[in-house]
Amino acid sequence: MADKIVVLKDGVVEQVGSPHDLYHNPASRFVAGFIGSPKMNFLVGKVEAAHELGMEVRLDAGALVCVPVEPDKSLIGKPITLGIRPDDFSSSPAEKDIAIDLDLDFVEHLGSVTYVYGNAGKEAVVAKAAKPDPLKNSGKVRLAASPADCHLFMTNGKALRRLHAPANWS
Question: What are the two backbone dihedrals, phi and then psi, of residue 2, each rounded to the nearest 5 degrees?
C-alpha cells in the first residue's frame, strides 16, 4: 500500500495522508466512507450539548453518546452524523460505551470473520461480530462501541477534530 494517499472529490483534495491516518482520522464524511471495507456506518442524530468532554449527541436510533471531539456550542440543536467503523463494534458494552439495538437482516459468515447487517432505526448498519456462533439471520442484537472510536461529521461533511486518539490507534 502507498505511503501517502490523496483522496479527491469532484477534483478537489479532501485529504492527504497515510492509509492508517485516513482510516482512523478522516477529515470528512466522504473520506470516512471511501476508506475501509465494509465502509463506515453513518447514524443521524442531533447535538444536545457541548462541554469540555466533547459533544453529546442523541441519535435518531435513540442512543445518547458523548463523543470526545472539540466542543462547538453553535452546533447545539443541529443535525449531525455519527460515524462508527464496523470493526469498532462489540457485543459486550462497557459502562460508557454507546449501545445500539440492531434489527438483524442477515449474518454473513466469511470463515475467520463474520459480519452482521441490519438496521438501527432507519439507518443500515454493518458490524464485525465478535461472537458469531449464536447469531441468527433475524431478531435483535445489541451492539456497543467506545465513544473514543466514534467520529462526528457536520452537515457540510467536515469532521469535528477528536480530542483523544482512539483506543486501537498505534
Answer: -70, 155
Q: What is the pLDDT of residues 122-144, one digit of tens each?
A: 999 999 986 655 566 668 888 88
pTM across the whole model: 0.88
Given the C-alpha cell 467503523, which residue does it identify? 85
Burial of 167 from C-beta contacts in 10 A (0-12 / 13-18 / 19+): exposed
Report d(CA 137, CA 36) in Å as an integer. 24
For residue range 10-23, what is the model confidence (pLDDT) as tens digits?
999 999 999 999 99
Whole-number Å distance between alpha carbons of 45 and 42: 10
- What residue has cell string 440543536? 77
- Domains in the chain, ordered, with CATH? 1-36 (no CATH), 37-153 (2.40.50)
